[in-house]
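Please, structure for the following, as tokens.
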Amino acid sequence: MKKPTHVRIAAPGRQGRRVLQGASPLLLVLVLFVGCGPREESPVADTSEPGSAPPVTPAELPRAAEPGEVADAEAHARLAVNAAPPELRENATVLGYTPEGELLTLRRGTNHMICLADKPGDDRFQVACYANSLEPYMARGRQLRAEGMTGPDSINQRHADVEAGTLEMPAEPATVYSLGGAPEVANLATGEVTGARYVYAVYTPYATEESSGLSTTPAQPGAPWIMRPGTATSHIMVTPPVLPTPPTLPTPESEDE
């Protein structure tokens, strides 16, 4: 019995034409029939901004706060977003704490920024906003802190998690905006923050001194520098210097006085 002939269907082009030239007329008809069949629908285009992570889904965020569960939730949200650039504040997601310390979602946003409200129970005001591609890293840190692991131990554990494939770091640079100071810098009634200090960190996993052109200490006050170079949590730090308060100048006396 004659063995069946196996014909390879090549992609269009010079090689594909050579394959089809040796095929039988019946096979050519079959190929044309298959090629003219219904096309598979193209996937929906990704309309998110280039290099940005998609908004975090509800399943990846803490549960939503019930009405009244967090006192002055809207006011705390207004304070929290002060850490972010002005154009990113209105549509940011905001997380905040109950009096017992449970982290909840105070507001679901629509952009790629997550803000963390001030945690009650200490003598310091501290809020932060960060690219949502950092949420797995931040959430893991909160989990380790709840288990009693903080500082270098928490960082080292997260490095181990990345190496084990259980924690994913952003593929593109991702920024953290931090704003802090004494409690009196925050006005809960107005949502304004005055006199607090900003600190910025741009996470660039595995960046080194050589790849970034940065040193591990700031060259001068306010200059960028790289922290934990060559690791999964490598990041560029920027700490603007604290400027002295300008002196109050005396008001010139009127010639009439």
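The longest strand covers residues 174-181. The two ends are 123 Å apart (CA to CA).
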